[in-house]
Amino acid sequence: MALLYAEQVEYLDVEEMQETHEEEIKILNEVDKLAIQYSMDKSKLSQLEAKIDEYLKHVKEHFSNEERLMKKYNFPSYEMHKMAHDMFLMDIGITIKQWRKFGDINKVINFIRKSPEWIVLHINTVDAPTAAYIAKRMEDEARK
Ligand SMILES: [Fe+2]
Ligand SMILES: [Fe+2]
Q1: Is residue 125 within 8 Å of residue 133, measured between CB atoms?
Q2: How far is residue 56's CA from residue 100's CA, in Å, rounded to a whole number?
């Protein structure tokens, strides 16, 4: 069983946003799978660490791309949406710092396993209306 399925999140009107979400869910599930393997075989640690780094990098690019699109199309609730991203990044950043400082990777694994709840809520209630707005602006632009 995967940690999160693409079907659990709203399908977005902006293709690049949708693709990013699908990719990110895939990486998230790979982190979870490696964490399970690591719990039985500690030699998997470096692979797991690399996957967590990949996940964090993907999240950062995902958020900054959405922010770029919101700015480009003058999305009115930009500040609110960006703040939600910043808070998530702050939370995961603190968790990763604790892991680097105290060496307890379980902190990061726990965070990642709890994150689907936030992800589903964010995509369905924040990204979906944002994408609907941007898709409309994109259409207007194409018609010009
Ligand atoms: Fe998103
Ligand atoms: Fe977002």
Answers
A1: no
A2: 14
Q: Per-residue pLDDT averaged across 2-28, rounded?
A: 97
Question: How far is the centre of ligand 1, averaged over its atoms, from the C-alpha of 101 (Å)?
Answer: 29
Residues in the chain, total: 144
CA of 101 to the centre of ligand 2 (A): 29
Comparing C-alpha atoms, which of 23, 99, 98 is closest to residue 54? Answer: 23
Domains located in the chain, CATH noted: 13-143 (1.20.120.50)
Given this model, what pLDDT does residue 144 score?
82
Q: Is the pTM of the predicted complex or chain greater than 0.85?
A: yes
Q: Which two tokens stand for residue 103?
A: 């060496």
Q: Which residues surround ligand 1, an ion (CB under 5 A)?
A: 127
Say how many Å lie between the CA of residue 66 and the centre of ligand 2.
6
Ligand 2 centroid, distance to 102 Cα (angstroms):
30
Report how far residue 135's alpha carbon sits from residue 14's, in angstroms, rounded to the nearest whole number: 6
- Structure confidence by residue, pLDDT tens digits, 63-105: 999 999 999 999 999 999 999 999 999 999 999 999 989 988 9
